[in-house]
Amino acid sequence: xxxxxxxxxxxxxxxxxxxxxxxxxxxxxxxxxxxxxxxxxxxxxxxxxxxxxxxxxxxxxxxxxxxxxxxxxxxxxxxxxxxxxxxxxxxxxxxxxxxxxxxxxxxxxxxxxxxxxxxxxxxxxxxxxxxxxxxxxxxxxxxxxxxxxxxxxxxxxxxxxxxxxxxxxxxxxxxxxxxxxxxxxxxxxxxxxxxxxxxxxxxxxxxxxxxxxxxxxxxxxxxxxxxxxxxxxxxxxxxxxxxxxxxxxxxxxxxxxxxxxxxxxxxxxxxxxxxxxxxxxxxxxxxxxxxxxxxxxxxxxxxxxxxxxxxxxxxxxxxxxxxxxxxxxxxxxxxxxxxxxxxxxxxxxxxxxx
Length: 354
Prior knowledge:
InterPro entries: Glycerophosphate_synth, TagF_C, Teichoic_Acid_Biosynth
Strand content: 15-25%
Radius of gyration: 20 Å
CATH architecture of the largest domain: 3-Layer(aba) Sandwich
Order of helices and strands: EHEHEHEHEHEHEHEHEHHEHEHEHHEHHH
Mean pLDDT: 90
Number of helices: 17
Strand order of the largest sheet: 3-2-1-4-5-6-7
Shape: globular
GO molecular function: CDP-glycerol glycerophosphotransferase activity
Low-confidence stretches: none
Protein name: CDP-glycerol--poly(Glycerophosphate) glycerophosphotransferase
CATH class of the largest domain: Alpha Beta
CATH superfamily of the largest domain: CDP-glycerol glycerophosphotransferase, C-terminal domain
Structural class: alpha/beta
Number of domains: 2
Largest sheet: 7 strands, parallel
Helix content: 25-40%
């Protein structure tokens, strides 16, 4: 088979990569199609070359459509909606594969334009999607991004090589870019948490866009502390960080749900800043994007302000099983099978249906 992966954004790659590996192993022809309008060409070229992934540059979705119509692959993977499906479906079949497992309404709404098949994670998710779109095809597979952890292929980070202390517990701080809690963390907060290693893995948009210069300066200040390691943009995959850390701190990132899927404690920051595009008259955008879901309430401990964070982290590390039942319930409903074989199930389906 000839299979293309539509890489509109760099953060799709960790979701695609285990599937790409499985398909390559089975002898199929696979390639990534990367958007130069949305990604840094130099950085992405280096990343994909290191992974030995074949790729082609296109400028935008119009150019991608033209490329797909010329190439006529058997299957095309998309991480979101695509506006030219009627034309694409004349020559190719399509896959929709979400890159996150959070509660955002957009997770469900992206199926408004149906693809040939959508691969889904947990029991509750597939039930809801089938109710919303009864004429479309949904196949439960699990969450491919976490396959390398569940099947023990991912070894994690070497803390010593990063200049950190392997004897210390490790905090992963992984804020999203909007809303974000970065501005609520003081420049010297790593000093207050000196008994821990701190891994800082922020959203790629935070590091790459000029409008987030204040956040970038704050992160640079944190990086000067000996107990801190800040991931660079080229470290696009969160998976090694999830494997290594003992506890996660975030606010509205889908990372919370990925970490909880590993049955490790999370701390949810109820303090964060909204960008201007979500404030005032535009607050409806925030509600539209994040919905009214209360799933965050059940997932782990909450910190209402920064000064509460240290004690909460200490408690959660001391009693890591406190929210274990909620995490198991979430896994069943939203993550699905955690046997490390999601990518195999996806590859099996593609081969069978073709």
